[in-house]
Amino acid sequence: MNTLRDLLQQLDTLSHDELEVVRRHIEERQQHTKSAAERMAAIDAAIEAFNEDLSPEMLDKILWAMNVEFVNPVDLERLREEMGDES
Predict the structure, then answer these.
(1) Buried b (16+ CB within 10 A) or exposed e, 21-44
(2) What residue spans define the domains of the chain?
(3) Which residue in 68, 87, 71, 67 sits closest to 79, CA to CA?
(4) Which of 1, 34, 51, 67 could disulfide-link 38, Cβ–Cβ 3.0 to 4.6 Å?
(5) Alpha helices in the chain (DSSP H)
(6) Are 19 and 11 in contact (CB under 8 A)?
(7) Comparing 6 with 33, which gets the higher pLDDT?
(8) Residue 14: its pLDDT value, please?
(9) Is the separation of the CB atoms in 32 and 24 below 8 Å?
(10) Is the pLDDT of residue 85 over 80?
(11) Number of Cβ atoms within 10 Å of the Cβ of 51
(12) SS3 84
């Protein structure tokens, strides 16, 4: 198993393009490792932005529709079989 020192030494041997790939990978990973509080704050902000343009009447209609209309869940396995997807 590599130690941190080994990893840093391996990074020193990479080309500029390879280092760019590593940098993007690290940034992407950091985005996916946000704390629960950070993720909730982002969700709250998105909901607030969504609600800004809706009147109370429109929100009431949306909530009513969500509580009344039933949508059958998708059977992913059957759908994949029908589509011929082997994944």
Answers:
(1) eeeeeeeeeeeeeeeeeeeeeeee
(2) 4-54
(3) 87
(4) 34
(5) 4-12, 16-31, 36-52, 56-68, 76-83
(6) yes
(7) 6
(8) 94
(9) no
(10) no
(11) 13
(12) coil
Distance CA 40, CA 48 (A): 12
Q: Please tell me which residue, 13 or 72, carries the higher pLDDT value.
A: 13
Closest CA to 67 of 55, 59, 77: 59
The position carrying tokens 């209609």 is 61
Look at residue 71 and tell me whether its pLDDT is greater than 80: no
Please tell me which residue, 9 or 29, carries the higher pLDDT value. 9
pLDDT confidence of residue 1: 57
What is residue 18's predicted lDDT score, i.e. its pLDDT? 93
